[in-house]
Amino acid sequence: MQHSHPVVSASPAAEALQARLRPGENVRAALEVDLDTHLRFSSGVLQLTDQRLLAAEPDGSFQEWLLTPALRLLLSDHAGVGLLELTDGKGRLALWRFTMRANLQAQRFQDAFNTRGEPVRAQSDEPELCPSCQAVLPEDSEECPSCARELHTPPSTWVLLRLWRFARPYQGQLLLGFLLMMGATGATLVSPYLTMPLMDKVLIPFQQGQQIDPSLVVLYLSGLLGAAIVSWVLGWAKTYILALVSERIAADLRTTTFEHLMGLSLEYFGSKRTGDLMSRIGSETDRISVFLSLHALDFITDCLMLGMITVILFSTNPWLALATLVPLPFIAWMIHMVRDRLRTGFEKIDRVWGEVTSVLADTIPGIRVVKAFAQERREAQRFKQANDHNLEVNDRLNKTWSLFSPTVALLTEIGLLVVWAFGIYLIAHSQITVGTLTAFLAYIGRFYGRLDSMSRIVSVTQKAAAGAKRIFDILDHQSNVPEPTNPVKLDRVEGAITLQDIGFRYGNRTVIRDLNLQIKPGEMIGLVGHSGSGKSTLVNLICRFYDVTEGAIKVDGVDLRRFRLSDFRRHIGLVLQEPFLFFGTIAENIAYGKPDATREEIVAAARAAHAHEFILRLPQGYDSLVGERGQGLSGGERQRISIARALLIDPRILIMDEATSAVDTETEKEIQKALDNLVRGRTTIAIAHRLSTLRKADRLVVMDRGEIVEVGPHDELIAKQGAYWRLWEAQARRVDQEAEEAVVIVPPNANAHTANA
Question: For the chain, what are the domain ranges?
């Protein structure tokens, strides 16, 4: 039988390859390539079968190669383009290009090619395919392991024990709460026990014609009232104490998680969505708090209650007690069967809910762009799809849970009927009294009620376990920019920077290779090059947002990795292309890097950044509130505030990444004046879109494909007519062309109209 397992899509190229399959030929993997030889977008498809490698090329042609031991498939990438090369040991047979969007599927394809000798698993039915990469999904799974960004393992209930790390500081209060819980539980068991003498010594003798002893009735009723009051007081005290403790545990968990998150490198945040992280720190910790304060408390109370009731029942009548336990094995079996489904289901629900919050986190901050492009309906539809997915996953889990709870209730009712029947039999044979059966039924009602409550706790326990796992996924993640074990003390920085044979890779993509550069203290370096040449990556490495994978970056002769991160970054000023302002006053934003700065220092920094004048024109001056991300200010005003923020900390090393590329010419002049004040006496590394803004640099460093191709002053590089000269000429021609296109051509009759006017 012919199989067509991993088909890429229903495109004509894919259908054409399917038609070329031989009878009995199985497809092992498929890959869509989306670039042609000229790096233009075009669709092509590769299919690996157990016999051949088939290719529908972007130009419409078809090729095939029999799978021989000499064939090799090499995967690489360069400047954002993936390369897949087929060789036979003598030379290249074919080369395919694709964008990095398909890089993960290309790795899968290469893995399948390298294991091509292994047999294909026969399947009788068409397999379910991943909608994104068209890989075969595992059985009983809706998630493709190839497309998943992180490994989603089902949460174990044991993960909740790790919360003891946060509960340890409150162990005294927890012990007190436990003792109060035992007392409250014991007090609630007094009333059923007192029903036996009430029935046997008061009510039944009264029915038989005897007089009621008032003192005996008062004694028993006083015992019932006293037990109820004691139970209420102890229950209130233990609930209050444990609720306070659980809230503090959740608060400590939130604080610790956020502090750990702040210590992770930028690489971690690049692979996570803001809404998902917000959901973990917010709703997951709230769920854990509710579990600790209510459900965990209920679970422990239920266990105590069941244990005490069991002892009382067996001490009263062992045979009737055994009849009470008849439903227990069936309920335990059901809990075991349902638990696995619940723990995987709730973990999936948490991730889907993270998708919903991610849509909110994407859309609300970008509402101006949404409205500018009239995409409100599209974003509403995107939210609806995420919400519908959340509803679908919840509905699937509720099918299991809706069957479980009524079944447990049915089993407990059956158990109660068994006790009634057996109790009547024992009374008929004069082995127990009516009062004993009445007390048994009262205890059994509580026993089965607690049993049903415990079965329901399975659900909330798995929810809490799923939330705890997502929290500990953050806490267990180690930053790939670690703090040194024995840091070098850094009191003062001169500003000498040495880049020594450095290399850096994003995943399997090489961005910087074999780069060497010496920067003197107080020198201004301009980084130029085409987009993707590695300029921004280089300054990220100097700031140690990432660590080099090869070589070393040294400041004043000491490797960056030997400094404490906070000590080193205190000496770095960063001015970005898109300045980020926090919600708050302008003074608070300027003093962000130095919270204890005086108002005089803040004003001095604003004056040096040429921001003082426009700040005074605002309604509350330096105390004026700026909107989220500084939406109440223009781009140039935000940039000058960010320059003032950098000036205030008086850094020895200054990084400027396209600081003037997003503003008009007049604003650029104002910003340039501020930058002149900022760079004076500091080691400066500047990236600029307009090459003319770097003419004041001591040296220009020209980068291409992660390497330095030229270094020197502007005039010297122009005279060499090399890479920098070509960039300069290309930009000059573009400026001239834009100027010509901006000229307004006046119609012939325009002068006449003007004269008449």
Answer: 12-115, 158-476, 572-650
